[in-house]
Structure formats: structure tokens, C-alpha cells
Task: inverse folding
């Protein structure tokens, strides 16, 4: 075979792409932040990688485990599914900011944090920040009448260690204001749910 006399045309050097950024103002745990962010940065990655708030955990990164749950304007969301640029002007609370929600100072804990300790509602602790934020969101939503409501509304937060009974007791202590009747009330059956609807 004869060597080719044609040289392959040289490809031009790639032009580096500069990602466009968007100016975003967020109020996170009581502190204002003005950030320039690419459009694809999730709230979870912003919190963990750019602001070094490592309490919020990255579990599945698909919105299926609840480890990344935070509060946005008092409502619970999976931060792995929310683009940070879409939350411009929002008030965001992570597990680190829960005590401030009740005006606690220093080393004081949010009542839910204390209840988790009192009821040993964690084992490895990986899911705990998401469980706590979800429970605060649940309380903000209102309408919790018994432990069945807590179980159902917390079902989007997984605990691989199986600390569910303790988590429900801890949330019930705070969300139901310690009402023994409400804590021990059975969950409604599917038939009862249909009747109520």
C-alpha cells in the first residue's frame, strides 16, 4: 500500500465556551447571598459545593430518597431537582438553619432536633437532615391529626437503617404537641380515606 499523499485536514482548535451565568439573590438560613450561577446548577450542588453547607445530603440525585430535602419559602422540596436560578429571591432553610426558625441562639436546637435525639430517631444519620426539614415542612402544611398522617406525609423520605418508628414518634411529639390520643391513633384504612374524600 502506498502512503497517502493527502494529509487529513487540520481541525481548528476548539473555541472554549464560556458558560453564561445568571445573577441570583437567595436568602439562605437568614443570610443574603448574591451569586452568579450557570443555569444548570441545582440548589443541592449550590448548597453543598459552593456554599459549603454540607448538612443537606446527596442521596439518589433523582428526587426519590428525600435526603436533600430543604425548605424553600417554608415548603419542603427536593433540592436535587430544583435549579438554583429558578429560586431567585427565595428564602431557603437547610438543617443548619432550623434553630433560627424558632429564634434559638447559640447551641440551642429546634424542638424537632431535640425530639430526634430524645427518641433516638436516627442510626447512621445520613437521612436525618432531610427528615428534619421534611418534618418542619409537614408542620408548616398543617392538617396533621395523627401518626397515620405523619407516616403518609413523610413517606418521601427514606431511611435505609429503618428508624421509621422512632422518626414517627419524634415528629409526632412536636407536630401533635404531645397529644397521647393523637400519637396512638391508628392510621386510617384505605376505605376510611375514600369515605373522607
Result:
Amino acid at each position: 500500500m502506498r502512503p497517502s499523499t493527502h494529509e487529513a485536514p487540520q481541525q481548528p482548535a476548539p473555541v472554549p465556551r464560556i458558560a453564561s451565568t445568571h445573577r441570583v439573590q437567595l436568602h439562605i438560613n437568614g443570610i443574603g447571598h448574591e451569586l452568579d450561577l450557570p443555569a444548570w446548577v441545582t440548589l443541592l450542588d449550590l448548597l453543598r459545593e459552593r456554599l459549603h453547607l454540607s448538612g443537606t445530603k446527596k442521596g439518589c440525585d433523582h428526587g426519590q430518597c428525600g435526603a436533600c430535602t430543604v425548605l424553600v419559602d417554608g415548603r419542603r422540596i427536593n433540592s436535587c431537582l430544583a435549579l438554583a436560578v429558578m429560586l431567585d429571591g427565595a428564602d431557603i432553610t437547610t438543617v443548619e438553619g432550623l434553630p433560627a426558625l424558632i429564634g434559638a441562639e447559640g447551641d440551642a436546637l429546634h424542638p424537632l432536633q431535640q425530639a430526634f435525639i430524645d427518641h433516638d430517631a436516627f442510626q447512621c444519620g445520613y437521612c436525618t437532615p432531610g427528615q428534619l426539614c421534611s418534618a418542619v415542612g409537614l408542620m408548616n402544611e398543617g392538617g396533621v391529626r395523627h401518626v397515620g398522617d405523619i407516616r403518609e406525609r413523610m413517606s418521601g423520605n427514606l431511611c435505609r437503617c429503618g428508624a421509621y418508628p422512632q422518626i414517627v414518634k419524634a415528629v409526632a411529639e412536636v407536630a401533635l404537641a404531645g397529644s397521647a390520643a393523637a400519637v396512638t391513633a391508628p392510621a386510617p384504612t384505605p376505605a376510611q380515606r375514600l369515605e373522607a374524600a
Remarks:
- The helical segments are 43-50, 98-101, 111-118, 128-141, 147-153, 164-175, 180-184, 190-196.
- The beta strands are 21-28, 31-38, 69-72, 75-78, 91-93.
